């Protein structure tokens, strides 16, 4: 059996959480599914709980499992775990407040991770497309498009626009739009 000095202060942390939640040792042991004597030994620093027991205790105490693992020394203090531990250790917060803050924080982190992945995927897809077809940049003030060819030399072309029919084609396009017209271009009103 290890001495209390060899173990991180997980027992005191669990005891503080239990007392903040105003539940007895027996109630916590029942909710977490661990024996009362074993939980007592954990709280006194005489036993080191397994990751599974820590997860059960975290669930029963309504704190995040990573915060519990961090306090037990199973995780390094990286990527926001210190925030979770600080929330869990704050004695001025109620259990409901701790749970809410933890859930909000973890939601923000997941959303930021998803956003970073989507941005990276979009950037990679854009880079792949640009590498295969050349880079195109619209310049709205000049009405031109600058295209970087595969050789890397920029070329300037007129900006594509709607097709402008000319000559006899223009007359046919006009008839299609306005209907039959007189020689002067006035609609006849007939079909």
Automatic annotation (TrEMBL):
GO terms of molecular function: DNA binding; DNA-binding transcription factor activity
Pfam families per the UniProt record, alphabetical: HTH_3
Biased composition (Low complexity): 119-156
Signal peptide from the UniProt entry: none
Annotated CDD domains: HTH_XRE
Every HTH cro/C1-type domain range: 14-68
Stretch list, region Disordered: 119-191
Official protein name in the record: Transcriptional regulator, XRE family
Gene3D superfamilies: lambda repressor-like DNA-binding domains (1.10.260.40)
Annotated PROSITE patterns: HTH_CROC1
Species of provenance: Salinispora tropica (strain ATCC BAA-916 / DSM 44818 / JCM 13857 / NBRC 105044 / CNB-440)
One GO CC term on file: cytosol
């Amino acid at each position: 059996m290890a001495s209390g000095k060899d173990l991180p202060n997980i027992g005191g942390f669990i005891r503080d959480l239990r007392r903040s939640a105003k539940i007895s040792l027996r109630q916590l042991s029942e909710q977490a599914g661990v024996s009362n004597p074993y939980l007592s030994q954990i709280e006194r620093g005489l036993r080191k709980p397994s990751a599974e027991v820590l997860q059960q205790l975290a669930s029963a105490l309504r704190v995040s499992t990573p915060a519990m693992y961090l306090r037990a020394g199973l995780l390094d203090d990286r990527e926001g775990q210190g925030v979770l531990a600080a929330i869990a250790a704050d004695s001025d917060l109620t259990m409901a407040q701790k749970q809410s803050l933890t859930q909000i924080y973890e939601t923000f982190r997941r959303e930021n991770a998803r956003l970073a992945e989507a941005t990276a995927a979009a950037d990679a897809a854009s880079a792949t497309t640009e590498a295969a077809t050349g880079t195109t940049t619209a310049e709205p003030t000049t009405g031109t498009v600058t295209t970087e060819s595969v050789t890397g030399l920029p070329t300037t072309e007129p900006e594509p626009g709607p097709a402008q029919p000319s000559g006899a084609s223009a007359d046919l396009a006009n008839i299609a739009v306005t209907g039959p017209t007189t020689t002067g271009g006035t609609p006849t009103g007939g079909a």
